[in-house]
């Protein structure tokens, strides 16, 4: 007997399938190549076994881009307007759990209130967006980074670092706010704004002062939704985490409405905290478990740290002003953040090998020298016998480390693993807290004052100015582009490139000098007598000839 044919399972998304088929046929009639795109989307949709609520959810499927999802959403909205919100099989739409319309067996409803706890992530996000909307010239929305920074001051939990043993941060509660129709997330990069309901509840919270935001919901007794679990995990514990703990210091008289700020713009002793800044790359991507171990170790050691984007280096320290709310003002004053003179570049031995091979090693050292901080530190994680399995010989790696210390003048600290790195960062933080017990900021930024235990004051640059000046891909002058070109030549370091630039600041000026040379031999020796470095050594005929061949050879280089 011939085998029975297996009945085809009906597509759980018949409307989407119908519309995609219509679009494919329409494109086919006009001879458009988009017919193949729609056909691929149809094939993916037929394989998906679950119903989709909207076009946006279809983006998880293969061959569904922003354009197709947007078209499906538009057609779905038109369908709802014409036919009402029915299910795809034509039955009346069942009440959704998020709307809180769930009946018990006896038909009795029981109400429960969704209450973002005071100083929780959800509470802070609502109030921050509301306060931002009340400012003159407000855009009506906030980006993720600025929202996290503004909301952190009224939240007891970190928006970026999870508690020890937990994967949730204060930011996790944002999904709950979106589910409850209090928060709207649009565009890419994401823009966050309050819905009408969210604005209403945030207004009540602002007017009530200490009162939390409450929203009436109707749910089954003992039944919790996924987002409620995320919200409960974001409720801060009684003891603050290390990332948000601030050491208590002596009370300092306030001046000009700013806590601990002197009349001449100085930061007074006791009016600031020494905070370790960790580049976000050190906590995300790659081996996440290993990177999270660093965060956990710092939390265990009670280090005050903040995760942010650093345009140069992996770790640095700032003196962050302690500020208090001013009576009669909506927001507390913005705290000054001054960068201390110490910056760390962290290298695992495998990362060191890769950076030497692709040229990042020299460039990173050059950028560290130019960043303006006088105490650069190279933190090398040797990772046991890992160097024996690298693409470069171990002797080459060790020579690179020694050159960094002897030639470049960096302080090199060798450690074995992540725990030792965290221990070194902890010790350095404690040391700097003692070293910078008395730190003043002058109105004019300069670096001519020595900052140590014997100096009662020193001049520092603000973090914003420092990070902006260290942007890697900012607009460059012709001189800077020329310097980067020279540094791509094997054997030309930052010092040698700088020495050449002192004589010839652009490629044009160098070519003009070569044009004045009578013979080719004279051109090859043009740069050989240029002095570079502290010892004022000659650049040498070999490098001089290499540069000449690069810029003056018309055919391919041999």
UniProtKB/TrEMBL annotation:
Required co-factor(s) are: Mg(2+)
The superkingdom of the source organism is: Eukaryota
Q: Does the keyword Kinase apply?
A: no
Q: Which UniProt keywords apply?
A: DNA damage, DNA recombination, DNA repair, Endonuclease, Hydrolase, Magnesium, Metal-binding, Nuclease, Nucleus
Q: What is its EC number?
A: 3.1.22.-
MF terms per GO, please?
3'-flap endonuclease activity; crossover junction DNA endonuclease activity; DNA binding; metal ion binding
Q: Where's the ERCC4 domain?
A: 275-384
Q: Its Gene Ontology biological processes?
A: DNA catabolic process; double-strand break repair via break-induced replication; mitotic intra-S DNA damage checkpoint signaling; replication fork processing; resolution of meiotic recombination intermediates
Functional note: Interacts with EME1 to form a DNA structure-specific endonuclease with substrate preference for branched DNA structures with a 5'-end at the branch nick. Typical substrates include 3'-flap structures, D-loops, replication forks and nicked Holliday junctions. May be required in mitosis for the processing of stalled or collapsed replication fork intermediates. May be required in meiosis for the repair of meiosis-specific double strand breaks subsequent to single-end invasion (SEI).
Its assembly, as annotated, is: Part of the heterodimeric DNA structure-specific endonuclease complex MUS81-EME1. Part of the heterodimeric DNA structure-specific endonuclease complex MUS81-EME2.
What name has this protein been given in UniProt? Crossover junction endonuclease MUS81
Q: Which organism is it from?
A: Electrophorus electricus (Electric eel)
What lineage is this protein's organism placed in?
Eukaryota, Metazoa, Chordata, Craniata, Vertebrata
């Amino acid at each position: 007997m011939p085998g029975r044919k297996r009945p085809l399972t009906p597509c759980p998304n018949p409307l989407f399938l119908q519309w995609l088929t219509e679009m494919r046929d329409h494109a086919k009639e006009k001879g458009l190549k988009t017919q193949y795109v729609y056909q691929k989307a149809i094939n993916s949709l037929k394989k998906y076994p679950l119903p989709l609520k909207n076009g946006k959810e279809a983006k998880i499927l293969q061959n569904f881009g922003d354009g197709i999802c947007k078209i499906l959403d538009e057609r779905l909205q038109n369908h709802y307007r014409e036919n009402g919100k029915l299910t795809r099989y034509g039955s009346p739409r069942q009440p959704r759990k998020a709307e809180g319309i769930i009946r018990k067996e006896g038909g009795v409803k029981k109400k429960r209130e969704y209450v973002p706890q005071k100083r929780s992530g959800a509470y802070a996000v609502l109030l921050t967006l509301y306060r931002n909307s009340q400012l003159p010239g407000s855009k009506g929305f906030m980006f993720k980074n600025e929202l996290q920074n503004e909301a952190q001051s009224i939240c007891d939990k970190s928006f970026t670092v999870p508690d020890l043993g937990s994967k949730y941060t204060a930011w996790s509660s944002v999904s709950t706010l979106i589910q409850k129709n209090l928060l709207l997330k649009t565009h890419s990069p994401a823009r966050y704004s309050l819905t009408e309901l969210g604005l209403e509840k945030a207004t009540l919270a602002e007017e009530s002062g200490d009162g939390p935001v409450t929203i009436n919901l109707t749910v089954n007794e003992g039944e919790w939704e996924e987002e409620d679990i995320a919200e409960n995990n974001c409720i801060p514990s009684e003891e603050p985490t290390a990332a948000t703990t601030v050491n208590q210091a002596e009370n300092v008289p306030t001046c000009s409405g700013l806590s601990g700020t002197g009349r001449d713009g100085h930061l007074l002793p006791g009016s600031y905290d020494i905070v370790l800044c960790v580049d976000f790359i050190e906590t995300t991507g790659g081996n996440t478990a290993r990177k999270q171990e660093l965060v956990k170790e710092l939390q265990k050691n009670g280090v005050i740290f903040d995760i942010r984007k650093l345009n140069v280096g992996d770790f640095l320290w700032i003196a962050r002003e302690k500020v208090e709310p001013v009576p009669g003002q909506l927001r507390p004053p913005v705290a000054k953040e001054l960068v201390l003179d110490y910056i760390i570049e962290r290298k695992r031995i495998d990362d060191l090998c890769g950076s030497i091979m692709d040229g990042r090693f020299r460039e990173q050292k050059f950028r560290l020298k130019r960043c303006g901080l006088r105490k650069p530190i190279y933190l090398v994680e040797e990772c046991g016998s890992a160097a024996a399995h690298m693409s470069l010989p171990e002797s080459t790696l060790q020579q690179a480390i020694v050159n960094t210390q002897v030639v470049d003048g960096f302080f090199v600290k060798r450690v074995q693993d992540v725990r030792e790195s965290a221990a070194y960062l902890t010790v350095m933080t404690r040391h700097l807290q003692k070293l910078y017990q008395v730190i003043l900021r002058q109105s004019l930024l300069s670096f001519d004052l020595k900052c140590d235990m014997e100096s009662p004051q020193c001049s520092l640059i603000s973090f914003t100015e420092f990070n902006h000046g260290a942007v890697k891909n900012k607009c460059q002058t012709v001189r800077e582009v020329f310097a980067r070109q020279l540094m791509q030549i094997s054997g030309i370091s930052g010092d040698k490139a700088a020495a050449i630039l002192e004589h010839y600041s652009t490629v044009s000026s160098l070519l003009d000098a070569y044009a004045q040379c009578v013979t080719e031999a004279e051109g090859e020796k043009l740069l050989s007598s240029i002095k570079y470095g502290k010892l004022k050594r000659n650049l040498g005929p070999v490098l001089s000839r290499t540069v000449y061949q690069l810029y003056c050879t018309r055919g391919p280089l041999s």
